[in-house]
């Protein structure tokens, strides 16, 4: 496998690892098949709800997946949509598509039928592979003529007659060679939400993943072959993809995957059963875990945790250290940059800050006047590094607004102190990060406005008791509708029925009017108070 494709070479003789990639390069070979070629095929790669899977077993499954995509009529560079729970099947399908030269598109398994309909139309996916547990929501969104294969899961729930993915793999001849791609070929897509609520297909290259592994996974986390990684963030997130696949597979380590939602009980159970050395979460989850008085040192081998997706409150980091005896490395990344580029690091942690730039990335803090912001002055965060996506699919306007030569505008506001530590100040637009997932206020407002009792709505971010941001709605009622606690609960349930559950407003305040500019634009900043 992969005889025509070279491997990366990581040079650590400089201040930070420098990754050299040959002209012929396929990321599936570098992350998976080389372990078999180099005699590490018997090492455990994946621990999921069905058991342990070695690198050799994952490689064989990925090769069959590559053959299955070929047999389904997928051509190299065409998209295949993967809406799958975190199991070995998802890893194999993802790397199998890349092996064949197709472009897997990882879809969030928590979305609505309307969301899926947009993404499948936008991506023009030739094939959809979906877990049985999400088929009820994605099946109505699948366009005519698109092949569909269903993957069994521990959650179950689908009784239809679609093609069975595993039966297809068993009947498929393994693909013996990988596609002759280059580091600059598009390898996969991840969807990132925008300020209008319409997702953007961020196109990532074959050469990008190994850079995140070298610069953050190996340099900051210090991940090695004996590590076991457990990420609560799912593989369809850029953060989770690095944690559970790119980082461990770059060094021949093991990853623990969990199909179910990351509830505190489910997390604690995996910590106890599999004793990971690295745990990756988001601030909301860390706060939930700390609220459980039974939480202690569930994983005796745990040496470090990571946090991203939203700013980690100082008290959450400090309480985690007191309770578990380990540190949380808080950082920030983005779908566009693929993983973390600004982070705290072992021995240099300042809770309440996002740390310092990851070596290998260049950061600038640009003032509102257009120049560079001085220490102590708030500005807009821009980042340059080797892992930026090549742009948004079929969205030139938003690509031009985000990518400027080697620089990516993150949309985050920061301040840098004299010691070089960066502190998060919020978003430059109205987007919210809720549990590590972007939420568009416009989308929530539109859902509320569809209720017969609502005249107008405005949504902003508000902090809960743990200092974490959640949506808060201000609603003006239609004439003839009276304010009541029952109506507030009805509106929350109404939004939950129409949007992914994490998007609903945790608080709703009924008001007489909304603050507006002279032109009628809602002044959300006046509501943040």
Report what the structure shows:
The chain is α/β, with parallel strands linked by helices and 529 residues long. The protein folds into two domains: 9-413, ANL, N-terminal domain (Rossmann fold), CATH 3.40.50.12780; 440-528, ANL, C-terminal domain (GMP Synthetase, Chain A, domain 3, 2-Layer Sandwich), CATH 3.30.300.30. Helix content is 29%, strand content 25%. A nine-stranded mixed sheet has the order 4-3-13-12-14-15-16-17-18, with helices on both faces. It has a seven-stranded mixed sheet with strand order 9-8-7-5-6-10-11, with helices on both faces. α2 crosses α3 (88-100). The protein is globular.
Give a topology summary.
Elements: E1 9-11, E2 18-20, H1 27-37, E3 44-48, E4 51-54, H2 55-71, E5 79-83, H3 88-100, E6 103-106, H4 113-123, E7 127-131, H5 135-138, E8 147-151, E9 163-164, H6 165-170, E10 186-192, E11 200-205, H7 208-218, E12 228-231, H8 238-251, E13 254-256, H9 264-274, E14 278-281, H10 283-290, E15 304-307, H11 314-324, E16 328-333, E17 340-343, E18 356-357, E19 362-366, E20 379-384, H12 396-402, E21 403-404, E22 407-416, E23 422-427, E24 432-434, E25 437-439, H13 441-449, E26 454-463, E27 469-477, H14 485-498, E28 507-510, H15 525-528
Parallel strand pairs: 3-13, 5-6, 5-7, 6-10, 7-8, 8-9, 12-13, 12-14, 14-15, 15-16, 27-28
Antiparallel strand pairs: 1-2, 3-4, 10-11, 16-17, 17-18, 19-20, 20-22, 21-22, 22-23, 24-25, 26-27
Uncertain residue segments:
none
Q: What do the pLDDT scores average to?
A: 92
**Under the CATH scheme, which architecture of the largest domain would be assigned?**
3-Layer(aba) Sandwich
Number of helices: 15
